[in-house]
Design brief:
single chain; alpha+beta; 14 strands; globular
Amino acid sequence: MFLRATTSTALFAAFLSLNSCKSKSAVATGVPSASAVASASAASSAGAPRTFQVPVGPRLAILAGTGVGPIRFGATVATIERLMEAPCDVKTADKCRYITQAIDFELKDGVVDRMVINRKDRPAGPDAQGKPQTYGFFNGGIPPYLGLGMIPAALQKELGPPASIEKVTTPNDNETVERDTYPGMVLEYDRYTNGNIILGGVILTKADVNPTPAIHAPAPSASVHAPALTVAPASKKK
């Protein structure tokens, strides 16, 4: 069911290249690359310093029904902060939120019960002064090369058809228009500012069985080299 998709590979390769600040062009799905943003800024403001944002923190594989990287369901806040290599930006009894890293760990009885990964520029709530904030870039994706910002067809070609599709007609802050459900994972598609429909969020929930498909990485080629996400072992220390 999982086919090699050269197009989606190229898209995610371009997306992940932000991590090394070497992107040459915008991702075709609608999320601009860091260099494209910087170039536009420089063109519109002569002499202004070039600024752009890149993913920070550990690179995390999104594992349906399991967690992200070594952070699994049932992890404590102390474990989250140790593995994320930083304290929560927002910490409450039911949430540990990382704004720059674009991920929310939702808590129940003090441990992770749900995880929400967000695309760049989704609303992240007000800061300490009450000013609106937006999420940064999530550093990772669905192994081996699927990521936020990709179009539905590219993801479905690799993951197969979802168990169910919900059309979202109620206005919402994320501009979400569709939710596709897979075992242990819901993909949220947003309408981006340019009108494209892209993967804007991933919601992870616990699953009774391992729902993570064995997606085989494409064979190396001379023209496409997509970095594969590796699955980190779960941390035993809570």
